[in-house]
Design goal:
alpha+beta, 11 strands, globular, binds zinc ion
């Protein structure tokens, strides 16, 4: 266990200031899990699934392909837009649904087959190589939870296969 302090910068807390969360963690994944538990829904929502901008998210039914029924409102079709997958009701005005996923989340492409999986099964495969704001890679699934899209972090990583550590590293 390592004692660390996890800092959520104020830019991510929507005006509630910088948050410092002291915790004990064995590795980055463990730290994420604990921070997620501590901050709960608040924290999950700080992730930018929607990519904020409306740019690349206009729906043209002639041009964009419907890929399935929206799992949130169960009424609209999810469309493959230029920069996002979104329920037609989430890009309509007035907006009556929230299903919208950027095609690029934390520097990672979100492939269409994974969005289909999210629509049909409520969850994507474990996707590697999300890059956190601090530049660290992590793996997570995208998951529908109470009508919202969130990260589900990988279960505690199984201990690496017991190949002996290289002697050089041990000598350092
Ligand atoms: Zn919808």
């Amino acid at each position: 266990m390592t004692n660390i302090e996890f800092t959520i910068p104020s830019v991510l807390t929507k005006g509630s200031g910088e948050k410092k969360i002291p915790l004990d963690a064995i590795d980055l994944q463990d730290a994420f899990t604990k921070v997620t538990e501590q901050l709960g829904e608040d924290f999950k929502q700080q992730f930018d699934f929607e990519n904020g901008e409306a740019e690349g998210q206009q729906l043209d039914k002639e041009k964009h392909e419907a890929i399935g029924l929206c799992p949130i409102c169960q009424k609209g079709q999810v469309y493959d837009l230029a920069k996002a997958y979104a329920c037609e009701n989430a890009v309509a005005s007035p907006k009556t649904c929230t299903f919208r996923i950027s095609k690029m989340i934390l520097q990672r492409d979100i492939p269409k087959e994974q969005v289909l999986k999210l629509i049909h099964e409520g969850k994507t495969d474990l996707l590697p190589k999300f890059i956190s704001k601090k530049g660290r890679a992590f793996a997570a699934s995208l998951k529908l939870d109470n009508g919202k899209i969130g990260f589900e972090f990988a279960p505690r990583a199984p201990k690496k296969k017991k190949t002996p550590a290289p002697k050089i590293a041990a000598a350092a």
